[in-house]
Specification:
The complex is a heterodimer.
Chain A (H helix, E strand, L loop, with lengths): L4 H9 L6 H20 L2 H17 L10 H22 L7 H9 L8 H9 L2 H12 L4 H8 L3 H32 L1
Helix pairs in contact in A: 2-3, 2-4, 2-7, 3-4, 4-5, 4-6, 6-9, 7-9, 8-9
Chain B lengths: L2 H6 L1 H5 L5 H13 L1 H22 L7 H9 L24 H15 L5 H16 L3 E9 L15 E9 L6 E5 L2 E5 L4 E5 L4 E5 L10 H7 L1 H14 L3 E8 L5 E9 L19 E8 L5 E10 L2 E13 L17 E3 L14 H4 L3 H13 L3 H5 L8 H7 L2 E7 L3 E3 L2 E12 L4 E10 L6 E5 L2
Parallel strand pairs in B: 6-12
Antiparallel strand pairs in B: 1-2, 1-11, 2-3, 3-4, 4-5, 5-6, 7-8, 8-9, 9-10, 10-11, 13-15, 14-15, 15-16, 16-17
Classes of the chains: A mainly alpha, B alpha+beta.
Chain lengths: 185, 450
């Protein structure tokens, strides 16, 4: 059974930085997708994702709840993407005002932005999130996941089904919250 | 089929993994249930949304550049216009010159100027001597219960002997032993035997470490320990000092002291309870002539107090190990289990009542089942097949006085549940039961604390 996020983080904190590799392999896809949607440039997004993953390692000692690593990592990735956008603007590659950059980075709605989905994945229970990452971001079939995780195929498909249900609820809750905020403002 | 069953089959349906009979049953339900039809249609949209999201990340491979930056100690930099990066200081088994340069960089970090030469000497000798090692046999003592977890510390307990045999090349076999348990890897499989219960756990892979023995492997793997310590000193604020001492006989020794901070906040339930993750001072003493590690002490740090919790009393290098070292003699009646399958085997039906339980409910159900010797129910929570010895020990529980509110820890991926129970001899015990969820079954299983 692969190490959990929490196990990896504890091992890193205990002096085994090599154990961070598993976290990088697990989250590079989601982080890249997250920053790519904000930057719209694959080369720049790869740099930003790398930077976010490195910064997260150097800040591991500040992470209070290791079980929330994914959500915490996305927070770092969001800030890095914002820095990259501002730097690009300063080089006048993008004719936009700072406020507009900040707004586009922190609010969903850009054409290919789906941060509601990213945040919902991060909020899933560990076992469900793991299967979503393996199925979609590592592009494994359900049968391959079952073999790799040493789980019955039926358990994989049932857990994925429950992950879908969880994602639907989390996305709906977030979208309700957004519409309430819009109504207030 | 009801709506819950239907929705639990959403993934299998979308992936065309249902057998014809199940697909037909699903179709019959969908024909009569508009809500489920809508549900599956919107789930298919969600599936598409996930595929689209992940497509952006196709073929992204960041592990090498990220790990390279981490291992070379390159700090995070500003995007687009990065500042000049510091020179490489990673300690590897490269040339003497590389090692000397690396050690020099660290000496600048933590040492007064006059100590630089000594630091470089320690590092060079340690690295070169490690490169020639084939085996390590470490005998030591630790303040830990003789039969419990290999990493559990009891600072006020007496010392218990602990021993490690480790191959540093070839099959990299290993064995760790203390009076109540032995763990080993024989090149093909990895196993643990608990003497008092006659229970064993094994799995068919050659693990580099297992069963909470990581910390001992780390201290025996000096090259990794030093390089990781140096790295953590720079990246995570660990304090590392290098010095030289002379003993009464005039012998010169090099000392490397690493202060390892706790991996969990002070006040956390597991704070300073287990050696990995505890706030410790680790003192490595190297022979001035050979450069090899000759002594090691680990002190628990607690509010300015230092308490010796582990020390290596004898370290032998390059001893040839007989094959039987990695095949401990065991009684014939050991009850074996697969640790990857705690609780009910996946092939057996799982009673939904166990899946729906909270940690508190699971703790109460488990302890009450022990009290009335309901072994099928106890087995639902026990991570290995119950044998007669184990049943005999669990049958000592006679009643459950109280179950408290479950709590979690930053250092444990499960829940702790406070309990108070009575035993046949009239004694009572108040402690915390450690429970973990089995990802296969969704049920809680016992993980310690009795």
């Amino acid at each position: 059974m692969p190490l959990s996020d929490q196990d990896c983080i504890l091992r890193c904190r205990n002096g085994s930085p090599e154990d961070y590799r598993l976290l990088v392999e697990r989250y590079q896809g989601p982080v890249f997708a997250f920053v790519s949607a904000r930057l719209g440039d694959r080369t720049l997004a790869a740099e930003a994702a790398e930077e976010a993953l490195v910064r997260a390692f150097f800040a591991l000692h500040k992470l209070r709840n290791p079980a929330a690593f994914h959500a915490w990592l996305l927070g770092i990735a969001g800030r890095v993407a914002l820095e990259f956008q501002r730097a690009r603007f300063r080089r006048k590659e993008v004719p936009a005002a700072d406020d507009a950059i900040a707004a586009s980075a922190s609010h969903p709605g850009a054409e290919d932005d789906d941060s509601a989905l990213d945040e919902a994945i991060a909020a899933l229970p560990d076992a469900q999130r793991e299967l979503i990452l393996l199925r979609y971001f590592q592009n494994l079939s359900c049968q391959e996941i079952a073999a790799r995780q040493r789980l019955p195929l039926g358990t994989v498909t049932k857990t994925l089904s429950r992950a879908y249900a969880g994602l639907r609820e989390l996305i709906a809750a977030r979208e309700n919250q957004s519409s309430n905020l819009e109504a207030i403002s | 089929m009801n709506c819950t069953d239907c929705r639990d089959q959403a993934a299998a349906h979308l992936e065309h993994l249902l057998d014809p009979e199940a697909e037909a049953a699903l179709d019959r339900h969908l024909a009569d249930c508009r809500e489920c039809r809508d549900y599956l249609a919107t789930t298919a949209l969600l599936h598409g949304r996930l595929v689209a999201r992940a497509a952006a990340a196709t073929e992204i491979a960041l592990a090498s550049p990220v790990m390279d930056r981490i291992q070379t100690g390159r700090t995070p930099h500003r995007a687009v216009a990065p500042a000049a990066r510091p020179a490489r200081w990673w300690l590897g088994l490269g040339t003497l010159a590389t090692a000397a340069a690396a050690a020099g960089a660290i000496a600048l970090l933590v040492l007064p100027r006059e100590s630089k030469a000594g630091a470089i000497d320690v590092m060079n000798r340690g690295i070169l001597s490690t490169a020639q090692l084939k085996t390590v046999h470490l005998q030591g003592r630790m303040r830990t219960p003789p039969a419990d977890n290999f990493s559990l510390i009891l600072p006020r307990a007496d010392f218990t002997p602990i021993e490690l045999w480790k191959e540093l090349d070839g099959q990299k076999r290993w064995r760790v032993e203390k009076p109540g348990r032995v763990a080993w890897m024989d090149g093909q499989s990895t196993a643990l035997y608990r003497r008092s219960a006659h229970e064993g756990s094994r799995f068919p892979i050659a693990a580099r470490s297992a069963f909470d023995t990581d910390w001992l492997h780390h201290v025996a793997d000096i090259e990794t320990t030093l390089t990781n310590g140096l790295q953590m000193a720079q990246t995570q604020g660990w304090k590392m000092e290098l010095s030289r001492t002379t003993d009464a006989a005039g012998g010169v020794h090099q000392l490397v002291t690493i202060d390892v901070p706790s991996a969990v906040p002070e006040g956390d339930y597991v704070y300073n309870k287990f050696l990995p993750g505890a706030a410790t001072r680790r003192c490595f003493q190297f022979n001035d002539q050979s450069g090899q590690l000759e002594a090691l002490q680990i002190y628990l740090r607690d509010q300015g107090d230092f308490r010796l919790v582990f020390e290596a009393t004898k370290i032998d290098y390059n001893q040839p190990f007989a094959d039987k070292v990695f095949a401990p003699e065991l009684p014939a009646d050991v009850t074996w289990s697969e640790p990857a399958a705690p609780g009910t085997p996946s092939s057996a039906p799982i009673d939904p009542k166990y899946v729906a339980m909270t940690a508190e409910q699971a703790a109460r159900t488990f302890l009450e089942a022990c009290a009335r010797q309901d072994w099928p129910e106890v087995q639902a929570f026990w991570p290995a097949p119950l044998n007669d010895r184990r049943k005999e020990s669990l049958a000592g529980i006679t009643s459950v006085i109280d179950i408290g509110q479950a709590f979690s820890s930053a250092g444990y991926p499960g829940q702790f549940v406070p309990y108070q129970i009575t035993f046949k001899n009239g004694a009572t015990k108040q402690h915390n039961l450690a429970l973990k969820k089995n990802p296969r079954t969704g049920t809680w299983y016992f993980d310690g604390g009795l």
